[in-house]
Amino acid sequence: MPDQPQTYANHGRFHPLFHFVLAPILLINLIVSIVWLVRNPGFASAWYLVMAVALFIMGTLVRVNPMKVQDRVIRLEERLRLYALMPESQRARIPELTEDQLVGLRFAPDEELPALAQRALNEHLTRKDIKKAIVNWRPDHWRV
């Protein structure tokens, strides 16, 4: 667990091996392959570029796909939490919340969640707006 409490200002995280090793290597490889093709046109250098593009796409998907799965799990978790915490009269509106809003609401503590969810629905708040509106931050240290 981190040394300081999680807040809106510090909740974003870097995965060092991905952000500072893999992504730069793949980007440099892509640039080198383009330069190589321009300087040495031919089948081998063209294939090198195709493979560099494929690796870059694969590296991007390695990051994006798990985040999408995490968003789906967060969506389910927050809908269950909202169902438990919202008054019965407001539960019918839970499906109106977007995935983006539900992902933002995960940082709201139980005391703030029903009112903030209602506000998100009425004012069409974005994920960023929701996070900024939270008074007592509920940390999420599991997101990668």
**Total E-strand runs:** 0
Q: Tell me the overall shape.
A: elongated
How do the SSEs run, as a string of H and E? HHHHH
Contiguous runs where pLDDT drops below 50 for at least 5 residues: none
Secondary structure class reads: mainly alpha
How large is the share of residues in beta strands? Answer: under 5%
Helix percent reads: 55-70%
Largest sheet, described in full?
Answer: none
End-to-end distance: 13 Å
Mean pLDDT: 93
Oligomer: single chain
The tally of helices reads: 5
C-alpha Rg, in Å?
Answer: 21 Å
Number of domains: 1
Task: Give your account of this protein's structure.
The protein has 144 residues and is mostly helical. It has one domain (16-133). Helices cover 64% and strands 0% of the residues. It has helices spanning 16-39, 43-85, 99-105, 113-123, 127-133. Helix 1 runs antiparallel to helix 2 and helix 3 packs parallel to helix 5. The longest helix is centred in the middle third of the chain and has 43 residues, at 43-85. The protein is elongated, with a radius of gyration of 21 Å. 13% of the residues are buried.
